[in-house]
C-alpha cells in the first residue's frame, strides 16, 4: 500500500499573528495562510501572546503558537521573533518564513539548525524618520544580514528588488502583495461622519512623517476646494508630530482616528472624490491596493514605488513633495471631474494578475516547496 505524501510544514513569524488583522503583514499572513491550508500545507503561525486573551491551538486549520516578548516599543517585535525562531528551530517544520527585515539577524539561528528560510523584507525601514540614529543603523544592518543568513529573499516590488541588488548585491524573488477588489459598496456608513459620496478627499495611513499627511493637509487647505479632507488613521502612542496635525482647526478637515469596521472603511474608500497616497518608502503598499480595488481616483506622491504601482500614471496622478504641488493637483482635480471619473472606472484594471492573492499564494508555495527540498 502506498504511503501518503508527507505534508509540507511551514512556520510563519514576524507579525502580530493570526487571525489578528491590523497591518499589512497580518493581512498577508491571513490571506496566504488560509489559502495554503486549502492546498494541503500545514501552516503554523507564531502569535504575539500578549495580544490574544484567548489562545486556541487551531483556528481555521492554522496551528497557532503563542510566544512571549519583552514588552517595550523597540523590543516587542524583535524579541517575539527571537523566541518564535528558537521554538521553530527545535520543531519539525520544513521551512521557516519570516516577515520584516528587522528580523534579519535571526536567520543565523535557523542556519545553525539547518532549517531552510525565506524572509519578506518589506520597505526601506532605515530611511523612515521614526527610526532616527541607532534605529536606522539597526534596520540597515539587519537588512544586510537578512541577505546573508536567509536562503531566499522576497521583495514585493521590482523597484525594491533593484534597491537590494544595488545596496547589498543580493537578488530576490519578487512576489507582490495581494488585493481584494470590491465592485459596489453602500454609502450608508458615511452618515456616521455626516459625509456625502464624492464630497471629500481621503487619506488612509498611520500619522507618521514618512506618509506625508502634513504636506497633503497643508497643500489641500491652501486650495480653493469646498470639499472635505478626511484623514483615517492615527498612531497608537502619544506623538507631538501627530498631535500638531490633529490640532489644526479648519471646517474642511476631519480626523476619524482608526476605522476598524471593514464596511465603514470600504465606504470611505469607495465614495471619496479622490484618494491621497503620500507614502514615501516601501514597495507594494496595501492602502494603495485597497484604493485601486475600491475604484478610487488616486493622487500619489511621485516616487519610484508609486510609479510602479500606478503603471507610470495610467491609474493615477502625481504630486511632488511640496505644498504647492498638492494645492495645484487639488485644483486640477476640482476642474476635471470627468477625468477623475475615468480614473475610477479604470482603477481596478491596475490590479493585474501579480496582485491576485491566489496567484501570490502559488508563488509563495513554489518558494516553500523549493526550499524544503534543499
Automatic annotation (TrEMBL):
Residues 198-348 form the Glycosyl transferase family domain. Its EC number is 2.4.-.-. GO terms for molecular function: glycosyltransferase activity. The keyword Transferase applies. It comes from the Bacteria. SUPFAM superfamilies: UDP-Glycosyltransferase/glycogen phosphorylase. It holds the Pfam family DUF1972. Residues 117-179 form the DUF1972 domain. Signal peptide: none annotated. Keywords: Glycosyltransferase, Transferase. InterPro entries: DUF1972, Glyco_trans_1. PANTHER family: GLYCOSYLTRANSFERASE WBBK-RELATED. This is Glycosyltransferase.
Amino acid at each position: 500500500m502506498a504511503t501518503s505524501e508527507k505534508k509540507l510544514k511551514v512556520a510563519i513569524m514576524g507579525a502580530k499573528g493570526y487571525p489578528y488583522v491590523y497591518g499589512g503583514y497580518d493581512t498577508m499572513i491571513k490571506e496566504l495562510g488560509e489559502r495554503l491550508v486549502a492546498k494541503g500545507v500545514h501552516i503554523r503561525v507564531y502569535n504575539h501572546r500578549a495580544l490574544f486573551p484567548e489562545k486556541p491551538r487551531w483556528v481555521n486549520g492554522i496551528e497557532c503558537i503563542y510566544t512571549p516578548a519583552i514588552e517595550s516599543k523597540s523590543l516587542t517585535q524583535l524579541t517575539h521573533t527571537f523566541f518564535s525562531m528558537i521554538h521553530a528551530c527545535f520543531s519539525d517544520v520544513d521551512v521557516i518564513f519570516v516577515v520584516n527585515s528587522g528580523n534579519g539577524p535571526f536567520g543565523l539561528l535557523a542556519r545553525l539548525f539547518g532549517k531552510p528560510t525565506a524572509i519578506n523584507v518589506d520597505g526601506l525601514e532605515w530611511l523612515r524618520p521614526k527610526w532616527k540614529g541607532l534605529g536606522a543603523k539597526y534596520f540597515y544592518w539587519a537588512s544586510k544580514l537578512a541577505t546573508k543568513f536567509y536562503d531566499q529573499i522576497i521583495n514585493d516590488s521590482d523597484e525594491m528588488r533593484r534597491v537590494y541588488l544595488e545596496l547589498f548585491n543580493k537578488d530576490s524573488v519578487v512576489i507582490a502583495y495581494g488585493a481584494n477588489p470590491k465592485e459596489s459598496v453602500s454609502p450608508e456608513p458615511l452618515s456616521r461622519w455626516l459625509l456625502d459620496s464624492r464630497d471629500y478627499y481621503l487619506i488612509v495611513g498611520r500619522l507618521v512623517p514618512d506618509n506625508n499627511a502634513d504636506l497633503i493637509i497643508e497643500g489641500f487647505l491652501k486650495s480653493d476646494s469646498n470639499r472635505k479632507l478626511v484623514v483615517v488613521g492615527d498612531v497608537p502612542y502619544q506623538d507631538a508630530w501627530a498631535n500638531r496635525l490633529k490640532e489644526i482647526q479648519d471646517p474642511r478637515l476631519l480626523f476619524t482616528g482608526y476605522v476598524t469596521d471593514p464596511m465603514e472603511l470600504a465606504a470611505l474608500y469607495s465614495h471619496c472624490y479622490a484618494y491621497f497616497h503620500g507614502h514615501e518608502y516601501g514597495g507594494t503598499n496595501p492602502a494603495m491596493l485597497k484604493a485601486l480595488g475600491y475604484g478610487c481616483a488616486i493622487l500619489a506622491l511621485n516616487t519610484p514605488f508609486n510609479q510602479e504601482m500606478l503603471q507610470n500614471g495610467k491609474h493615477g496622478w502625481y504630486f511632488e513633495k511640496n505644498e504647492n504641488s498638492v494645492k495645484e493637483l487639488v485644483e486640477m482635480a476640482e476642474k476635471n471631474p470627468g477625468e477623475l471619473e475615468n480614473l475610477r472606472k479604470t482603477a481596478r484594471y491596475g490590479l493585474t494578475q501579480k496582485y491576485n492573492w491566489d496567484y501570490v499564494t502559488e508563488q509563495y508555495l513554489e518558494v516553500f516547496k523549493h526550499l524544503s527540498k534543499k
